[in-house]
Amino acid sequence: MSKNKTLKRYILKVDFIVASVIILSYTILINIYFMFGLDEGNYQDLHLEAISFSQAYNKHLAPKLPKSIHFNGYLNWQTLPDWAQKQFPELAQVTQTQMSNVKLKPEGNLIAWPEQVIFILAKPLNDGKTFYLIRKIDIETYQALSKRSIKNMFKLTWPLALLFLIMMHLSVHVLLKRTMKPLFRLGTWIDDLTLENVSDPIPDFDFKEFKHIAKQQKIAMLRISDVLSKEQDFLRHASHELRTPIAVVKSNAQLMERRLTEDKSLASVARIKRAALNMQHMTETLLWLSRDDDKEKLSTSKLNITDMLSHLIEDNQYLLQGKTVKLNINMDNELQDLAATPCRLILNNLIRNAFQYTAEGTVNFSFKNSKLIIENINIADGELDYTGSDYGYGLGLRLVDKIIHKMHWQYENIQISGGRKVVIQFSNK
């Protein structure tokens, strides 16, 4: 089906085809009934004439055989002309009144107007003889009357058919105009339907079916609103409730770190601190994404991306323990007017991703002209699964995608030989 096809055009096309078929069918039917009416009229004339003759003949009144411009009568089969015997051999022997006709057309032309029409009636008499009554119509003889009348009938039929087609087309056009107008209003209302105005009353769309569609659309939007509201409430509540245990874990980890001196104990405390730090970053990420604030509502400040990146690299160094990974850092010490929270969140997730999926190799950091490039290249034996749910498509990078989209920064995350290359352009220049 064509992409540009509209419901209106489709209905008008179907309407034209159906109307044309109906008109053609009725025209053919009218012509069939017209010809049937002519045949029936001639049969009635023959039948009445035959009854009149047979009644007189059976009463032995010796009536004369009809012979005029309309009829020719014959007694018995042998008296019929040879051409009549050849045309109607089935009437040689009859036991009851029978009638037949034949239309003679020019040879080789089956759809031409007949040149001659012959009607014949065979009626048995009381003495065993058969009375035949023939009516032969030469079209040329009746051309001035019958053929002209028939042509006039055709001339009247086609204008009426055209008038019917126009009336049907106009009625469908008016009907479409009446129904499409509220349909367009329904489409506009659905386009403008948002979570803010979904609770407003549904406008009147004239037809029950359109009102039902609008009602179902509103119900679906309310369900979406309810799901989003529950999701945001969950994120806010979870983030809020997690703040206290995270703070308790961090403070007690710091207290234990001051009091303990064993290496094993200090390692355990370090793991607790890192876990608390990760929970804090994830909580801040989820909480910030659940807010409805636009970029303009976020407070910005002069940030030193180099310092922030250095601190985050240090916080995530535990991911490189036991690995042979070289860090190449090439960054300009420039200040950027950015929102601190989203910037720190995406950098932390990207660094974690690069460290986690580099068993042996290098991780390159570059920051120049507001463009940050993080590239990890793994050269360890055995290939890492880059298609898993944690690499490139994991929760961390999905959150990065959302944050980047919300901040309208430019972002690329491409696969390279042995790893990934991420490019972020903080400036919209």
From TrEMBL:
Gene3D superfamilies: 1.10.287.130, Histidine kinase-like ATPase, C-terminal domain
Membrane topology: Multi-pass membrane protein
Keywords: ATP-binding, Cell membrane, Kinase, Membrane, Nucleotide-binding, Phosphoprotein, Transferase, Transmembrane, Transmembrane helix, Two-component regulatory system
EC number of the protein: 2.7.13.3
TM regions (residue ranges): 12-36, 156-176
Cell compartments where the protein resides: Cell membrane
A single GO molecular function term of this UniProt record: phosphorelay sensor kinase activity
Histidine kinase domain sequence ranges: 237-429
Catalytic activities: ATP + protein L-histidine = ADP + protein N-phospho-L-histidine
Entry GO CC: plasma membrane
PANTHER family: SENSOR HISTIDINE KINASE CPXA
Name of this protein: histidine kinase
Organism of origin: Pseudoalteromonas denitrificans DSM 6059
